[in-house]
Structure prediction request, 300 residues.
Amino acid sequence: MPGRERRRSHVPLMLALFAINVFWGGSFVANAIALRSIGPIEIASLRFFLAAPLLLVIAYLWKGKSILIIDKKDLGTLFIMALTGVTIQYIIQVSAQDYTTATNASLLINTSVFFIIFLSAAFLKERLTAWRIIGPLIGFAGVALLVSKGTLSFDVGGGTTGDLLILASAFLWAVYSIYSKRLASRYHTLTILNYVFIIGAIGLIPFYLLTPHAPLTNLPLDAAASILFLALFCSIIAYLVYNMALEKMDASSVALYIYFVPLSTIVLAWLILGESMTIASIGGGLMVLLGMYLAEIEGS
Prediction:
């Protein structure tokens, strides 16, 4: 079966996708640790101030200076990707935290899966089947169980601004994913990410300068370690794998792995921060896995 053979060939990439979404889940734990000492915009900025030059050095040593050669007509697309995948993406997420609950934010950010599915069908002509809608819906219900700790209680009043900002953030990630998929066949992943990180980091500079920030020499060890984890694992490695996956797989299939983010956050918070895990968390996790199976296996 062609579909089955294709899935088999993608197994290493699928395992890598699972791993990076565990990293992204761990980013919330790293943020929580860093937030004890520094502000959210400072965290986002330092993350990419470190990741951008590191990725540039890696690309240059690995592939040489030719890796940075692009067609000037694609600069506009890369600029949009930098704004939607780095600068505006993180500024909106940070701002939303002041207007909505963590539970609402954790749930609504996963609507990016649906944005990607429908945008992929509209602009990339990816096949949209019933299971590719039903599966993500089941997975989303699992996420709702996870982030609400089984209560399915969400703040539907007083947080409209924050909820809309999170939805905007989810939509921006979908836009980033679609543009990345379009460029994937034309450039090496390192080429795309270098421009995205450099432009995105430059875009963060004004926000960093306009908000209070402590001297880097005063950064506590645990906050510095968190920033390093965010830069290396959640930015360089995670973005590389995500963009490589978009090159090889349907964008709608790649999007489903985002559901592992809240699941891994809860498991890691239980292991590292000592937070509680409930029967509902386990049930929600199983629903995420079932939804992914139905969407990817039955929907292909």
Q: What stands out?
A: The chain is about 75% helix and 0% strand. The longest helix spans residues 221-248. The mean pLDDT is 86.
